[in-house]
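Researcher: Structure for this, please.
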Amino acid sequence: MRLIGLLASVLMVLGVTRAAFVISGSRAAMWAASAAALFSTAHWFGVPRTNGEMLASPFVAWGIALAAQALLRPDRRSWLYAMTAGVLAAGAVLIKQTIVDGLVFAVVLAAVVAWQRPERRRHCLLVLAAGLTGLAAGIGAALLAASARGTTPGDLFDALVTFRADAGEVIRSSASSATTDRLWILLGTWAVSGLAAIAVLTVWHGLRRRDPAVLATLGVIAFVSGAAILGGSYWARLPDPAGPGLSTRGRSAGTGHPSPGAVRRRRPDLGCHGGQPGLHRHLPSA
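Model: Predicted structure, token format:
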């Protein structure tokens, strides 16, 4: 299992690197890779143990990269990138049902691009449709595979969704002083690990420049933070799903290098390209 976890971490770093390159270019990709590698080896996140968050991280990272490719660098293959991103989002959800970071990123990014670039609205709708098709196809394939082994869709729903809801209720109803201690540890981990600083930089950069990729990352941060707090268990590993997104955006807050969508919005004649989905863009340049 540790070897599988190691492979998942390596694939996550590669996915973050690709996402950062798509959004902001090669220099951003270098910083994003460094941040992703740091987060994926941090003991305070519980990474020595292979868990669902770790196994889902490459699906999230590559889903973000492909969603950014489809929406920020449109071409004739955008539908294929979007559909593949949808399949990867399905994979993340099937591993752990609260990990929909890639889907959140894609939806927010499409909404922001459509709002800022009215001429791209049809393209954004087509990308979302292709992504949802891939999501449905991935979940459908999983249901067929389970059915072939004698597990009905209802049984699978009970095991993955109903059980998680019941477990969450049990956790909330049986809260003790240890639960409060875990909450403080979770908040402390978020603060001292650098994730809080990157999140603040992302908020600042997003409000200042309204960069589509940064705003999409804000959506991921909000969702992951809400899921971690509302879940009631407060394990330190719960911020892990935000790692790919945070890592992708980590460098751009300090550099002021906008994503392709932001560049084209201000200077449509240049047709600039660049790239990175997540937070690693906000780390300052050397």
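Researcher: Any notable elements?
Model: Residues 156 and 162 are 9 Å apart (CA to CA). Confidence is low (pLDDT under 50) at residues 250-257, 263-286.
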